[in-house]
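Field: sequence (string)
Field: structure_tokens (string)

Example rows 1 and 2, in order.
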Amino acid sequence: MKKKDFIDILNKIDIITKANKMKFVLPVGITVKKELLDNGRYGYIVRDTNLGQLGHILIVPNGNQSQIVCEVSGDADDPMTVKRQMILDPIAKEIAYKMTAVCGKGSGEIRPYDSPRQQHCIKSIMHPCEVCKKAAALLIFADDATTNGQLEDYAMLMHSKIKEFNVPTWVIGLESENIVNGEDLRKSLTLKIKNNRRVIEILTPDDVIDEVDELIQAHCSIK
């Protein structure tokens, strides 16, 4: 396959496949967005409305041709990575199939490709037990998250820390500004991702702190 811009190729796929009633259509809730990577190349981010970032589809130069690389987001030991892969795989395969139909099948060996790992700074607070001083709860602040998918993005990025502490963990999204007559009515999309993973809820700061306080009190008892 010759080097071509991914979006241009998808446009050509649409033109050709319309006549054959094979138009490429993304599944409901899935979006693809072009993004410049740290190494100066472009990748195409595939997102799901509820699961957040599923992965990347990359067009990597390989001699006078190009190689399609599909990467699933998340750590290998994260159970959510399997769910992302189940959605991403058929999409990537369909795109690769249609690109081959338009541009022809490439030749030559497939080269290994390593994406640069991005660094992220995410605010979090570990609440220790007052008796043994070990971790009792972890709060992760997704200060710009207003959707389910964005909360899942933070959970994915913090997976190693969540695994390290191995305690009940909350990912807390952007708080609404709502204080009436001195009463705190702020609420956030919140995801509890440890010990009976729950659906995403809308909670107040007090809702979360009450649960954290219960965990701290129950963690140890003085004999």
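Row 2 begins here:
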Amino acid sequence: MKIGFFCESPADQAAMAIFTEGILGEPPEPIGMDLEARGVGGVLRGLDGVFRGVHYNSVADGLIVVVDSDDTRLHSPEHEKPDADLGDCRFCRIHAIISRARSQLKPAHRQSPLKVAIGLAVPAIEAWYLTGRNHEVGEPAWRAALASGHTVFTRPELKRLVYGTDRPAIELQTQRAIDESRRVIGNLPAIETAFPMGFGFMASEIRSWKA
């Protein structure tokens, strides 16, 4: 299956290719397009153009978009209600950009519409890498922390736990991303349980592509 990855960094893209391999049971095929972004802002600003470009100019089956939640509001089923207060939920922002772009597409020579899966790393993708190593890291703990205003771990602390420093070079980020994602896919139920909305929902969507 040909899949593009639009994430905050090349390290995130490398990890997502491995996570997707674990979800699908086979490595995704590259689509021959450079979809690199820089940070959350780069993803949100570039997503409309990237989605249209992949739709019109590639033979990709799917596009996977992943960003960190940082301190923003986490996604929940309540956001699906017609009059829901979405706040600054990044999942909903990405979904809205994709929906608007999809509604404006012109006919393309495609056998089927471009599939899209959205992942929200809570509070950062380094937390996903710690699955199975640190049981305090997960969406329930972060939701409680946001509600109380007292975090049990910070994003710099997550980076130090994964990389040994909170200012890792991209080479170190990429190598650790590959190593840890490869370890985590050995027990996917663990990460889907720890991160049910941010990772589990995305994984279910990706599985549906193969079905």
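free_text_note (row 2): The longest strand covers residues 62-68.
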